[in-house]
Amino acid sequence: MPRIFSNLLLAAAVLLGAAFAPVQAQPLVDVDWAKANLGKPGIVFLDLRSGGGLSKEGYLKEHIPGAIFTDYAKDGWREKVDGVEGMLPPPEKVAKLIGSLGISNGSHVVIVPMGRAALDMGAATRIYWTFKVLGHDNVSILDGGYQAWAVVDEKTKQPINPIASGGAELPPTTFTPHFRKEMVIDRNDVKKAMEAGVPLIDNRPNDFYVGLTTSPVVKRAGTIPGAKSLQESWLTKNNGGSFRSKSQLQALYKQAGVPVEGEQITFCNTGHWASLGWFVSSEILGNKNVKLYDGSMAEWSQHPELPVEQKFKLD
What we know:
The protein is α/β, with parallel strands linked by helices. It has helices at residues 3-20, 31-36, 56-61, 91-100, 118-133, 145-149, 187-196, 206-210, 246-256, 273-284, 296-300; strands at residues 28-29, 43-48, 68-70, 79-81, 84-87, 108-113, 139-142, 200-202, 228-229, 264-267, 290-292.
């Protein structure tokens, strides 16, 4: 076979293989992407509402067509472990929940938070992190959440995108976890990191960071000594449901004295706000050396041998 013809066949084979290769899921997708992929086989829109007046009743009134529902607070995405709230449940337990929703290892999961505030997006990033821990990379978050989808036309005052009511369900299936234990750390790992000078990032509001405010699940006010403050509300536009641009986030990290590369650990009270910090560092800024401490201050503060720094005290 002539070499030129052989090379042409090889090139054609490579292009054909690329055409049928699975497309890697992007961490963030926008409304245009969601609309273009609505109803496609294998894509599961996971509507996420709980707390702050949000409930399944709201989902039943209106949601993205075909989107299934899960309650972040009640369905078992997090649980109390050894007296610590908000911890990652055993992988097999979460996998059973995921399968019961009709999500398989072949599904591309698009998480749809309400998108009213950074707090909503934190629920999405925590579930996103959970999928990653279970070895499922085919997962995305709808930037702006349902609020971005449900925008109305200024003239007609009608929704621009299709909206469904009632419930949508998928038949239960099997989801097999492939646990990435290297993504999960405990207080001993954090203590070693603190002593080694690894940057620790406190993603709580500043009043928690300085010790003026304490969560009911945290035993001592303050933060882990040496931690930098990078509030979760900084990470989205106007504390809303859309993430800031990469360049804006890089500037904010610089302002907070937080590196954009290298080892670092994010934490908060229960690993909710900190998942936003993890998501921004890992998935938007591309730092794959960041880890989320899901025990956070709820676990750390329960152990008197571990230091806590209260930066400001009132009489």
